[in-house]
Structure formats: structure tokens, C-alpha cells
Amino acid sequence: MKRGKNAEEATSDGENNTASATPKKTKKTKEPEAPILYDDPPDKMTSKDGRSANMKITSWNVDGLRAWVKKNGLDWVREENPDVLCLQETKCAEKSLPADITSMPEYPHKYWAGSDDKEGYSGVAMLCKTEPLKVTYGIGKEEHDKEGRVITAEFPSFYLVTVYVPNSGRGLVRLDYRKTWDEDFRMYLSELDIEKPVVLCGDLNVAHQDIDLKNPKGNKKNAGFTPEEREGFGKLLEAGFTDSFRELYPEQQYAYSFWTYMMGCRQKNVGWRLDYFVLSASLVPGLCDSKIRNKALGSDHCPITLHIAV
User: Fold this and answer.
1) Which of 116, 152, 179, 203 has the most CB atoms around it within 10 Å of its CB?
2) Residue 203 annotated in active site
């Protein structure tokens, strides 16, 4: 504080006594570094084992469905044209869903889950071109299922699970609950995997490694990058599941799917990779591409897309 005050006084003295002031060299202000952006490469449509992609799935945390629709999110969806669209953080009760999305002819089979207790909180959705064999909600545990975080669709050769994983919260107030969730959810996925392989997509609310966020050092005690949350994701991988993006792009830096609205973080690409497609081991040979569509606007997250041969 003292230094600042003295500097002000020195400036004042100089201005009041310009005749006797000796000219000083002005320091060059450092130019801000240009942000390093991730350029989503062209889509790969063939798997390592030579099969052509026959399933396209898109996942997007929309941070409020009604606002996202008003921001023309559906225009982007029509252009992307996935076979299945999974949405998280819809924050919208089924009775309040916008007609623009409930009447979409492209997706005749639509499924919604919301919070039982708090309207406008959490919520996920799944929109399908082809009707699944069966659709279920939650993971079979009341303490988790009341928040409307999971939809599972059974298709002939795999299960598709979309999830909005609980945030540990400011001050990590829900970290203990999150640890319980991670364990219970992993058990749920492992049980499904015994029956059929699983495609998991959604906002997993964790950046797994340092490479998955811009500022790892400053976030080790913040929600989404605590050792406990990272360990929880690591245990999911140890249970036989694969992070599809890192399978294809193990060293890719600056590839993020979330940026806070504050301080121009998206323009500066100060972000986190929180959104994933996670695959059962038996589906990995059919993996064609795992995309981060970081130019699509309408939310504080961007959409991600999976191309797979199933």
C-alpha cells in the first residue's frame, strides 16, 4: 500500500513541477499473450479396426434448456444431426418444456428427467431418432435419483447412459456426497456392463488430469479438480472403461468443454474438460472419433460428439 501511495505522490509532484522534472523512460507494457485455442480437427469416420461409423451421439450441458433454445441451440443440433441427443442441466420441469423442442419431428422419441424437490435444478434429457428397447431413470438409489441426473436407454447392442454428475459445490460442501455418488454410479455402470457394453456421456464435473484444464495448480482445492474427484474418475477407468477423447488424443492440450462466463474466459480459452464420452472396453475397437465442438455457442459448455461403429 505504501508503495502505491508514494507512487501517486511522486506522480503528483511531477505534474505540479513540470519545469524541473527530468524526463523518465516509460516502460513498455507487456502485450497480453494471444490465447491458444483448440481447433477441432476433421471428423474421422472409420475405426481402427476398419469399420465405418454407424452411430452418432451428441451430448451438451445446456445450462438451462429454455435459455438455450432461445439462443438457437436447436439450429446447431439440426446441423450436427446426431442419431441421439443427450442434454444435461436442463433446469426445466417437463410441464415447462419449450414447444420448439417437444415438437421436434427429427426426434420422435424424447425422454426427460428432473429434480423431484427443486424445479429449475439439475435435469437431463435424451432425444432419439430410433426408439430404444427400454428407458430407465436414475440408478436405483433414492438419495441420488430424486435429483434427476441419469437416463439410461437400452439399444440392441449397447446401453447409452447420460448423466449430470453432482458438483461438489463452492467450498466443497457436497464433496462427501460426491464421493458416495461416484462409488454408487460406478457400481451401476459396472452392473450394466455385465449385460451389454456401455456408452456413458455427459457432464462428469471432473477434469481428470492437469492437461484437462488451463490452470491446474490454482484449482487443486476447487470443485472439479480435487484429488477425491479425480480419483473417483480414475477408479471408473480402472473398472474397465475408457475416456474416448484421451484414447484418440492422449497428448492434446487446450481442449476444453467448459468456460466460466466471467472475465472473458471463453475468448481466452481458460477452460476445463468436464464433458466426456466414456466407453466399455469392448466398444473401443469401434471408436471412430470423439469431438469437442468448441465453436458452438449457447451455454457455458460446448457440445461433444461421438462417432462409433456398433
Assistant:
1) 203
2) yes
